[in-house]
Amino acid sequence: MRFGRCYFVLVSLALSLGATQVCMAKNWDVSVGGQTSYDDGYGGTYSTPNLVFAPANLSVNVGDTVTFHGRGGGAHNVHADDNSFRCANGCDGSGGSGTPSGDAWISTITFTTPGLVKFHCDNHVSMGMVGSVTVNSVAGVQPITGATSGSWYDPQQSGEGFLVQVAPDNTLIAYWFVYTPDGTQQAWLVGSGSYTPGSNTATIEVLQVVGAKFPPNFDHNDLVATDWGKLTFTFTDCNHGTVSWDSKLPAYGIGSQPLTKIIGVDGATCN
After folding, report:
1. How many other C-beta atoms lie within 10 A of the C-beta of residue 248?
2. Structure pTM?
3. In the beta sheet, which residues pair with residue 77?
4. What is the CA radius of gyration of the chain?
């Protein structure tokens, strides 16, 4: 396996668009709130409210819908940070009410514009009840294969990028050569995770490793690995996709960006 040379900062390559497989719109379900019951061991039963959206972060395609299911356990709603929707027992402006409700409500939203949509519960945003939907611009599906391996970047931010490797046993490995939020130093992130054969999406656990010195002063005992969070890759065709992140380090936060492949692996054919 041989990679060609790749320069994230100066290179400007014209990449051809691979064949896109058209797929039908899909509905995604998100649970809102609810409660967990448990036995105290002495015959008593207690309930704890779940102040979460589950799953909290989704990657969907343009035209897909997301159905939010209010499970009670408190008065909840789903409110987009950009005020594009506010829903509970229906949605504001559509004959319903987005006021937080403890009822078992259902609201479905169609996402028609590419980008990142963050949302929250009005009553519990300060307690971390937040989520996001990354809407991919191309409604296509490109299964992860050996041809996924290569160098990927956002053409609008050519000073940073990813090296992705598809390994045996349905494992995806990724290195993100990027910078710290304050811009004072490089931040090299590395992670791996499994994916379902035939799927175009993989979520991996990521570490941030710091502390070592340049050879001959390198000592692996100096390395410090921090649990950084998760990256989710979604590939829409041979040369395009999206990466979204949910970092456990507050400065990095939650976000997403489009990806374009700069260069792949010699001899690998995209299906």
Report:
1. 12
2. 0.54
3. none
4. 21
